[in-house]
Design a protein that fits this description.
The chain has 6 helices and 11 strands. The protein is α/β, with parallel strands linked by helices. It has one domain: Rossmann fold (3-Layer(aba) Sandwich), CATH 3.40.50.10900. The strands form 2 sheets. A 9-stranded mixed beta sheet has the order 1-3-6-7-2-8-11-9-10, with helices on both faces. A hairpin with a 4-residue loop joins strand 6 and strand 7. The longest helix is centred in the last third of the chain and has 30 residues. The chain is globular, with a radius of gyration of 20 Å.
Length: 256
């Protein structure tokens, strides 16, 4: 069996497209960005990627319909004032093993290089372990020119504080070996829930860099729902602490 099976759904011609990786990771930040761009910018799917390095499972969706573990490639033509063509990598999974990551990312790069990709942007989340009042977007790049591009977008530059794990880091590292430059945009996130607020922050920075406009109302709504859910959870936790401190141990109940 091949390490990655790429099925082309539509033959397309693109003009020096920018390659954007937005697979699920910490806080599902990248995936949320990809899903929103696909919906709002009418992206067209032109290839599907299957691999035995993906998790050995399927997902059960609405009304019991099964969905394969998959990566997908979409194109967008003439985006924004600069009329960029984009190739967007989305999906519901990444490879499980380090070997699988290297193999699949390399094969995807082999495929998208045929379209003459000019730059790579990877999108994801960086976990900070706790809620924050304001979401920052952090960045790192393959070269000084792209670092300056991030700074112009008022993105905080990560410096000497660890690595970028998974596809978001690996596509850039493999791209360097091929002479393709780029950058990673990372939204701060607590890391333990699906973070639409962080996804919106990353998306708006990407839109600034690539000079396009996009409606983010749906991400706003999802972020507000998450905030309300967290507020309820925090209130329940505080109520339990108050009961414990008041000495009413009988009020504490556990559901197994």
């Amino acid at each position: 069996m091949k390490a990655a099976e790429i099925t082309v759904l539509e033959e397309v011609e693109l003009n020096n497209p920018i390659f954007i990786e937005a697979l699920p990771g910490v806080g599902h930040v990248g995936k949320l960005v990809a899903d929103h761009m696909i919906d709002e910018l009418n992206a067209v799917k032109f290839a599907e990627i299957y691999s035995p390095t993906f998790p050995p499972q399927v997902l059960v969706g609405d009304e019991g319909i099964i969905e394969n573990m998959i990566n997908e490639l979409y194109y967008i033509r003439g985006l924004g004032e600069d009329e960029h063509d984009l190739i967007l990598l989305g999906g519901n999974t990444q490879s499980l093993s380090p070997d699988g990551q290297y193999i699949v990312c390399n094969e995807i790069l082999d495929f998208v290089e045929q379209y003459g990709i000019s730059r790579i942007f990877t999108l994801g989340g960086v976990p900070i372990g706790q809620p924050m009042d304001e979401t920052r977007v952090l960045g790192a790049a393959t070269d000084e020119e792209n670092v300056e591009l991030l700074k112009e977008a008022e993105i905080d530059i990560r410096s000497n504080d660890g690595g970028i794990v998974g596809a978001s880091g690996l596509f850039l590292g493999l791209g360097i070996r091929r002479g393709i430059k780029g950058a990673c945009l990372m939204g701060e996130t607590p890391g333990y829930f699906i973070d639409a607020e962080s996804a919106e922050a990353v998306l708006l920075k990407l839109a600034h860099i690539l000079n396009f406009e996009i409606n983010t109302e749906k991400l706003d709504e999802r972020a507000e729902e998450t905030k309300e859910m967290l507020a309820r959870a925090q209130q329940m936790e505080q109520d339990l602490i108050n009961r414990a401190n008041s000495g009413n141990a009988d009020d504490l109940r556990y559901i197994g």
